[in-house]
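Comment on the following before class.
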Amino acid sequence: MTRRRTKSEDEVTPESLYLRRREFIKNGALAAATAVGVGSALSWLVGQAPPPDPPAGVAITGYVPASASPLPPGDATTPYEAVTTYNNYYEFGLDKNEPARYAQGLRTRPWTIRVEGEVARAQTIDIDTVLGWFPPQERVYRMRCVEAWSMVIPWLGFPLADLITRLEPTSKAKYVELTTLADPQQMPGQRAKTLDWPYVEALRMDEAMHPLTILAVGLYGRVLPNQNGAPLRLVVPWKYGFKGVKSIVKIRFTETQPQTTWALAAPTEYGFYANVNPAVDHPRWSQATERRIGDLTRRRTLPFNGYADQVASLYTGMDLRRSF
């Protein structure tokens, strides 16, 4: 008699697909090839030892708490332990639990951000100077990965628009490009040619200036952990998570659309805009539903990740199937 598969078994990526994904990445193709559900990134839940508990973290005081959660009922925040041990940060490894293991040696002080391009004055700014300019605010946002899993995260940060205004880009600036640290000694994943390092992402200027777009410096009231992009990362809640460039060391204003990491790696799969769109599937999986980390069932994905009322007007007249 054939044994009936259980629901939990059906949610685990088959080993053959997992091995294909690892080979796919090693050959310079795309790291997102597996995420049809929970995926092998949760392998530590099915027989392997879990990653170490995250450090308690340094509390951030004096931040402005979220005045009211914009999330509907059923959208509870994802536990801190999950947010800090289940994430993509290929500079520290290909599996979801590896950044928590290998990012602890990243030195986040001293840390500077270079500003250049179409801007009134090119300059290098110390991270603590930036933090002194902008008191952190709490923003509780959904985060939707292109791999069809999601979280709800209480970030601490400040509007990117505030920093842009202070930096005074010129009238030629139509885009803002952000670049991650390149340091293979600290970031062992950069020793492999998984992607074209350093990691680069960019936004159109109106997207960057939108009030939902923030630079995050913490989460859950604590300083941002290394594995989540310390000391400074981008958060754009209506876009897929790979737009959220981490450990930013350079901001460049440009007149033309920058070349971004995943769009260069696979332009037919990862577009520049990367707006969450359940009507446009990834070539290898559906985007119509997602699995919220911690839940046992899938849920329907919302256009623009549920922020359509605030951001859809940015794309009026655009064909979002072509400009994906």
